[in-house]
Write a structure and sequence with these properties.
The structure is a homodimer of 144-residue chains.
Chain A (H helix, E strand, L loop, with lengths): L19 H13 L3 E2 H7 L6 H13 L3 E8 L3 E8 L6 E5 L5 E4 L5 H11 L2 E12 L1 H5 L3
Parallel strand pairs in A: 4-6
Antiparallel strand pairs in A: 1-3, 2-3, 4-5
Helix pairs in contact in A: 1-3, 2-3
The complex binds manganese (II) ion (2 copies) and zinc ion (2 copies).
One manganese (II) ion (MN) binds next to loops of chain B.
The structure holds a DNA duplex (30 and 30 nucleotides).
Chain lengths: 144, 144
DNA sequence: TATTTTTTGCAAATGATTCGCATTTTTATT
DNA sequence: AATAAAAATGCGAATCATTTGCAAAAAATA
């Protein structure tokens, strides 16, 4: 299997503890570039490995900073955790409730806002979660 | 039971279909002013009514626009849905991972950003979810 | 008051995620 | 390479928030 990864996003000891399964998970997330949940990944890798292994693998990858995740309540498939490869900058997403896909918002619209809030409320912000829900351009055009 | 509600936040036919239980849910949410999940409310109303009724009541109140909700993954209590009374303007919250409470962010820091995104990506934004996770002022001061 | 509709309590079902444990694979040590 | 120790996997069972079926209770309507 060919290992294609962008250096800067990988911890130094990449090959340490990187099993075939974990690597496959990374490949899938890297190939799709959109947030995927466990069952979506399971589809992608059918009969290749177990769902529990996928969950365990994703958790491992997250605690070791290869991927990050968020929970989202899709009107079609309910509340699930979605995973993405960690990139240079963190990302937020818009979710279309017609085609149920995620689209990345290239730059975080909260840059200044967060430091303002920290200053004003003395709250130390470790993480922030932002998701938009609506109708994507494509679905808006093809008026179903 | 005394009915204290702020007019503007209540649909016109407030008393229609407003059962004792649903009213109690509103009272609790209105009294606490912070996002509460079903079990939290259940504590508050112990032996008064059933957990399933709480869920059903909250769902009713949400579809009828009395309350709104979001899912949040608290490091202590996991992924749960939190409900708040609907106020004039929608609200976002900071969650402290030391005392596990929510604090409202009085004004939404996404005002302009959203219309920019709609314009740039042709995505129609129906809802947006923003939550901050960190350490609140109080917990930061009392260095545990 | 009688009839219809809605809500409730309780128990059982659901669905995403986790966990226990025996087995297999990987890593470290002779 | 062979052996011993450690970590990962598959499978099934457990967990936990939330939902649902159903019969009884309450509320709305006639
Ligand atoms: Mn969706
Ligand atoms: Mn918490
Ligand atoms: Zn779409
Ligand atoms: Zn705190």
């Amino acid at each position: 299997m060919i290992r294609i990864f962008i250096d800067y996003l990988l911890p130094i000891f990449y090959f340490k503890c990187m099993t075939k399964n974990r690597e496959k998970l990374l490949m899938i997330l890297n190939a799709n570039k959109v947030p995927m949940n466990a069952s979506l990944i399971y589809e992608d890798t059918k009969d290749s490995f177990d769902l529990a292994t996928i969950y365990r693998g994703l958790n491992y990858l997250e605690t070791n900073n290869y991927v990050s995740s968020f929970v989202f309540d899709c009107k079609e498939s309910g509340v699930q955790r979605y995973f993405t490869i960690k990139e240079e900058s963190h990302k937020h997403y818009m979710h279309c409730e017609k085609c149920h896909t995620f689209t990345a918002i290239p730059l975080c619209p909260l840059k200044n806002a967060l430091s303002d809030i920290e200053e004003e409320y003395g709250f130390i912000v470790d993480e922030h979660y932002l998701t938009l829900r609506g109708i994507c351009r494509h679905c808006a055009e093809t008026t179903l």
